Amino acid sequence: MNTKRYIDQLILFDNFRRDEIAGLITGVTQDASNDVIEDAIVESYYSIQRRLIKGVGHGSITGTYLQNYFCSVLAAEENAFALMAEHGYFDGMKPGPEAKQSLKQLTPTQNALFLHASKELKLIRTIYDFNYEKVTGVVDGRNVAAFGALVDGVKGPGHLEAIHLAMRKKDCVDTAIGLAQFYRNYGCGVFSSSPAFELTDEKGVFAPVRMASPVLLEDLVGVDLQTQRLVKNTEILLAGLPANNVLLYGDSGTGKSSSVKGLIARYGAKGLKMISIRKEQLERLPEVMHAIEGRGMKFILFIDDISFEESESGYKIFKSMIEGSLFAKPENAIFMATSNRKNIVKEVWSDRQGSDDVRLRDNIQEKRSLSERFGITLIYGAPDKQGYLDIVRSLAAKAGLTMPDDELTEAALQWEIRHGGRSGRVARQFVDYMAGIARIESAAQAPAAQPEEGD
Fold it and tell me: Which one, of 8, 31, 15, 5, lies nearest residue 132 by Cα?
């Protein structure tokens, strides 16, 4: 089957049409249908395999490696259909027998765009399930395209599974409904690749952050009240309502950053994204605002461990942003910042000296005004002895660390004396160390495997 003529008809999914691997496959099917010599087909075959094998063993996949790759191409589309889906224009559409009725609920423009997308997805299917063996007999056991999630060392399906399930639907309308739901939950374009990003040094480029072990809010001990307020404020943001900027301040290692990251773990599949911005990048905030304004997703602009000298230029830009002046932040974003002190602009003794009371008050008020622009301020204090031990016991239970409580308590107290005092971070480091020691000792005590007869 010559699939090139189908893929060349794509209008909405133009990135798919221009994709290199899609082009190689359509070229192969065209060559086969035109009785092109086998050598040309073989060359394209190995070109496809070389590109796909770069992804083997890295992270989660869905379907085969070829299908997983195509899912990532569809996720990265940023066309009119994807953007409308991201904004929720196709929410409530139901697949199956109710699909036609769902179409009637759309406006004429939405309906036309949706049907156009469903027809193009039908065209894309012609190579989504591509099987090279049907084109040529050149299969030598290295068909990476056919590798699936059962390959040793490869994790099971990731967030792209939603696209793969949509592409497996028999009805192309159902496929479009599934893809629209993906865009709604995870976004489209560059922001579809991860729930968290870093602003790179290159203008307009956001790098996805891979969280190897996501922080879960329910795993945080001793910060229940702070977590409740964070969750409520985040849900207000996700509902499209005005939400507050949040300042989390307190001692080091008490869970400030973990609390913010926990929000991404909980709401990352519900349209929430986080962009981490370093203090020296604050001058580029207008660039960030331009990139996220008008998107259907909601954003946490996260600044970790923030503090300023009054002379720093980033301070003035950040202050103007958070005050809502010339460069106001968009409605779909809030700031969350962590700091070891409440007044994030450093105060010095000279601020409290002045020729009169008016100047004295002005100096102090100016330094404190930035902190006051955060509608919610949450305090994270170092735990007392009992609170520290509660955290240790909770983490130990989750890590499967089994040792008598009196021994665990004594070891934990000795650890905090030698490692900077009591905090959630110190408790985590202690449990990680003890759990590691326990696993090593357990492995050393395990009986060696006996060779089988005949070896």
Answer: 31
SS3 state at 60? strand
pTM of the model: 0.85
pLDDT tens track for 80-105: 999 999 999 999 899 988 988 889 99
- Residue 345's contacts (CB-CB under 8 Å, 6 or more residues apart) are 307, 308, 309, 310, 315, 366, 367, 368, 370, 371
Measured distance between the N- and C-terminal CA atoms of the chain, rounded to whole angstroms: 50
Q: Which residues contact 120 (CB under 8 A, 6 or more apart)?
A: 9, 10, 11, 12, 13
Q: Output the CA angle 201-203-207, nearest 5 degrees.
A: 60
- Residues 6 or more apart whose CB falls under 8 angstroms from that of 16 comprise 7, 10, 22, 70, 73, 74, 77, 124
Residue ranges per structural domain of the chain: 4-193, 206-380, 385-444
Q: Report which of 362, 367, 357, 292 is spatially closest to residue 331, judged by C-alpha positions.
A: 292
Superfamily, domain 206-380: P-loop containing nucleotide triphosphate hydrolases (3.40.50.300)
